[in-house]
Design goal:
Blueprint lengths: L1 E2 L3 E5 L1 E7 L2 E8 L2 H9 L3 E5 L7 H8 L4 E4 L23 H17 L3 E4 L1 H9 L4 E2 L3 H4 L12 E7 L4 H6 L2 E6 L4 E2 L6 E6 L4 E5 L6 E4 L10 H16 L3 E2 L1
Parallel strand pairs: 2-5, 2-6, 6-7, 7-14
Antiparallel strand pairs: 1-15, 3-4, 8-11, 9-10, 9-12, 12-13, 13-14
């Protein structure tokens, strides 16, 4: 018997999709780059659409089938979920994703399932922990480097915090693809693990967890797959720890 490839759930949208003669059919969608990175790192990718019945119980049931989770990028988290008034720049909320991903954030923490948050996913993790978001970064930093134009990724440098798990993966820093106008302000239970030069928090991690890490940038867009390899390795260890094998 050998260890099974770890199964990684990737959260997704339900959006109108078109193919062939079918137009605007509701589909469960996530950019395929996420799937490709997980598969290339040795995992099995599973798309996890938002659920209307999502709660902690459903999340625990789902995690019984998964060895790791990616909370994927997407629209802004509803400010009402962290008790703040809505800034004019905030995008229309997606309660289906908010509810599902907050439940997954809580459940992965309770079960210590390996978790990687990406952009919105980092913000979901902070809100689930009782944190607060900065709703429009350009108001503070005075530039749009983190999100230069619609559907256009920025690129900037991040500095990792010495001694963190992220520093062990990426070294002292990296140039990263970026597309966000919000960031994490407070993050109970998480330690900062990377910063942008303008003072924006770019990554955080839970030092108590086996693997619970979040980045504000979009590693799926670039060629640097080290974060995905680290997640899949942690998920493999998690799977082995609960005795999941294949013939």
């Amino acid at each position: 018997m050998v260890e099974a490839r770890p199964v990684i759930g990737i959260t997704a949208y339900v959006e109108p999709a078109s193919w062939g003669r079918w137009v605007d059919v509701p589909g469960a969608l996530v950019p395929y780059r996420y799937v490709g990175h997980v598969e290339d790192a040795g995992g099995i990718a599973v798309v996890v659409p938002p659920r209307p019945d999502a709660d902690d119980g459903v999340a625990h049931e789902l995690l019984a089938r998964l060895d790791g989770v990616i909370l994927a990028g997407g629209v802004d988290v509803a400010p009402e979920l962290y008790a703040e008034e809505r800034h004019a720049s905030v995008q229309a909320s997606r309660p289906d994703r908010d509810t599902t991903e907050l439940a997954l954030a809580h459940a992965t923490a309770a079960l210590d399932v390996p978790l990687l948050g990406i952009c919105r996913g980092m913000q979901v993790m902070a809100v689930a922990a009782g944190g607060v978001l900065e709703q429009h970064v350009p108001d503070r930093v005075g530039h749009n480097l983190h999100s230069p134009a619609p559907a256009t990724y920025g690129n900037h440098h991040v500095r990792t915090v010495p001694g963190t798990r992220l520093a062990g993966i990426l070294g002292d820093g990296a140039d990263v693809p970026s597309y966000h106008h919000q960031s994490v302000l407070t993050h109970p239970g998480y330690a900062p693990s990377a910063w942008a030069d303008d003072g924006t928090l770019e990554a955080m991690e839970d030092p108590r967890a086996a693997f619970r890490l979040a980045v504000q940038w979009h590693p799926e867009v670039g060629d640097d797959a080290r974060l995905f390899h680290a997640l899949v390795a942690a998920a493999g260890a998690y799977a082995a720890g609960r005795g999941r094998t294949r013939g």
